[in-house]
Amino acid sequence: MASMAHWAVSASLVGLSLVAAVPAQAAQQAAPPAVRQALLQQAACRAHSGPDLAGRDLTGATLPANLRCADLSGARLDRVRLAGRDLTGADLSKASLRHADLRGTGLRKADLGGADLYGAEAKGASFTGANVAGAELAKVTGAKLTGALGLPASLPATKRTCEPGSGQQYAGRDLSGEKPFPADLRCADLTGATLDGADLSSVRLDKAVLRSASLKGATLGHLASADLSGADLSRAKLSGADVRGAVLRDANLTGAALANADLSGADLSGALMPGAELSGADFPGADVTGLGGSTTRIAPGLIVLWSVLGVLGLLLIGLLVWLVGKGFKRTAREAAAMTESIENELGLLGAKIEDLAPGDGNGRREALDAYEEAGRALRAAHSINDLHKARTLVNRGHQALRTMG
Questions:
Q1: d(CA 277, CA 280)
Q2: Rounded Cα gap, residues 15 and 208, in angstroms
Q3: Lowest-confidence range among 18-32, 133-147, 293-307, 330-344?
Q4: Which residue, 109, 177, 293, 303, has most beta carbons within 10 Å?
Q5: Are 397 and 372 within 8 A, CB to CB?
C-alpha cells in the first residue's frame, strides 16, 4: 500500500508539473533566444501557486524538476533526491529534509524557516534571498549561504584550519535584531556587519573577519585570532573574553569592558580605549603601539594604586639596601669584637696550660688539644658561626682544666 501511495504521489506530481510547464515552455520555445532568456529571468511566481504538498510524506517519491512556488511546508522529504530541482519561491518552512540531496538545487527566495536539513548535501545549491531563519543546518555539506536571509539555528561545523573569512558570508548584513545566533561562526566574513547589542557570548568567532563591523554594546566571548580592524566595539562587553592574537588595529573600544580578558599577542595598535575597563586583563606580547585614550580606566583607582605601589617599591628597595649595608657593618663589628674576645680567652687558656707540669695527667693533654684546635679554627674563621665553633673549643679547654681541680 505504501509503494502504491508513493506511485500515486509521483504520478500526480508529474501531472502537475506537465500542466504547469507546457504553456510556459511553448511561449519560451517560440520566442527568439534573447527574449527567451528574458522570459526565464522574469518568470516569477506567487507564493503557493505551485503544487500543494504541504504536510505530505514524500519519502522515496520522485519529484518533478519544476517545483517553483510549491507549498511543501511541514512536508517530509528525508533522503529525497532534489538535486537540480527548481524550488524557487517554494515554501519549505518546518519541512524535514534530513540527508536530502540538494546538490545544485535552486532555492532562491524559498522559505526554509525552521526547516531541518541535517546532513543534507547542498553543494552548488543557491540560497540567494532564501529565508533560513531557525533552520537546522548541522552536518550539511557544501552549503554556501551567500545572500540568504536570517540566521539558521545551527551551521555546519567549521574546520579549525579554516582561513579567516572563508566561512559563512554575512558581510554588510544588519544582524542586530537576530536571535539566537548559531554557535559556530568561526572564519565567517562579517565585514561591515551590524551586530549592535547582540549577545554573542557563546558564539565562536575565532578567526572571523569583523573589519569595520559595528558591535556597540555587544557581548562577546570567543574572538581568538579574529580580525576586528577598525571595528566599533564601544561599550562592548568582553569581560573574561578570549581575544588572544586578535587584530584590533584602530578599533574603537571606548568604554568597553575588558576586565580579565585574555589579550595575549593581540594587535591593539592605534586602538581607542578611553574609559575602557581593563582590570585583570592579560596583555603579554600584545602590540599597544599608538594606543589612544588618555583616560583609559584600568579599574577604578587602579592607576593611582599602581603609582603608590611603585613609590613604595622604590622606598622598600632603598630600605633593604640600607639595612643590608647596615647589617654588613654590624656583622663586621661583631666579628672583630668576637675575634678579639676569643683571642684573649685563648691566650688565657694557653697561660694556664703553661703553668701546669707536663706530667699533670689527662686534663692537661685535653686542654692542650682544645687549645691547638681552637687556634686553628680561629685562624680559618670566615663567619660568626666559625667564631662560635672556635669559642666552643676554648671553653672545652677551660672545662678540661677545671676537672683537674
A1: 9
A2: 48
A3: 18-32
A4: 109
A5: no
Among the residues of 143-187, which ranges form H helices? Answer: none
Where are the strands (E) in 217-277, listed by range? 219-222
- Count the Cβ atoms, other than its own, within 10 Å of residue 348: 13
| CB atoms inside a 10 Å sphere around CB 267 | 21
pLDDT digits (tens, 9 = 90+) for 358-403: 666 677 788 888 888 888 888 888 888 888 888 999 898 888 888 8
Closest to 185 measured CA to CA, from 217, 212, 209, 161: 209
pTM, entire model? 0.59
The answer to whether the beta carbons of residues 164 and 186 sit under 8 Å apart is no
Tell me the pLDDT tens digit for each residue of 344-363.
887 888 788 777 766 666 77
- Classify burial at 104, counting beta carbons within 10 Å of its beta carbon; exposed 0-12, middle 13-18, buried 19 or more: middle
- Spatial distance between the Cα atoms of 106 and 129, rounded to a whole number of angstroms: 11
Note whether 90 and 115 are within 8 A (CB). no
In degrees and rounded to multiples of 5, residue 13 shows phi and psi of: -65, -40
The Cα–Cα gap between 118 and 177 comes to: 25
Provide mean pLDDT across the span 259-283: 88
Instruction: Note whether 266 and 248 are within 8 A (CB).
Output: yes
Map grid coordinates 568567532 to a residue: 205
